[in-house]
Design a protein that fits this description.
Length: about 250
Amino acid sequence: MWLTALLNSTFAGPANSVMQAVGYKNVDPAHPWSNWLATEILVVAILVVLVAILRRGFSVDKPGGLQHTAELIFSFVKGETNDAIEHDGSRYVAFFGTLFVFILFMNLIGIIPGMEAPTMNPSVPAGLALAAFAYYNWAGIREQGLLKYLAHFMGPVWWLAPIMIPIEIISHLARLLSLTIRLYANMFAGEQVTNTFLALTYFVIPSVFMGLHVFVSFLQAFIFMLLTIIYVSQAVAHDHSHEPEV
């Protein structure tokens, strides 16, 4: 990818230094930058610029199109959060909204010719899943305290603890795998289908599948966010029932 080639020719040295600092050695010193990392950095840069433009042009009397879009996304995320988290859900909206927008932009950027969606690489969905996993556990501990939160892993009665604790640990770890595979597999499959039809013809059929790719991009960003909302709601709920996991 042209952006990856540019970074490898310009910033190969700093990238190699970072790789060595973290102990990662399985990389070509001449090409330390990969497509998914270059595109992910580009998405972050785009979002930072958009937020700067939005903040500078914010107006109560004459909101522009970008502000309307941002307010629509905020209202949507806040509504989903309040539906799932009854008590003080507004404190979590910023994380959920960031997660949704970040994933959405990473999914959609793959439609641009010459670009590649970072979520097609399993490392990116895995990193997002780890962030969601850490966040909902942190939210549960902050809301209920460490001991009370850990007590939920023991089950409704104490004598079930030897059985329930391993089951709960496996269940929570399975969420990492579920979030990762769901996002990665759907985006990878969608990208491959779109590329296949683009190689066959350049008219009506590719447009249909590109539209489908846009739909899948929105859907997968929404599902990832919604599952994270559900996990947080379960973690912060004081009346914690052991229902089947999503």
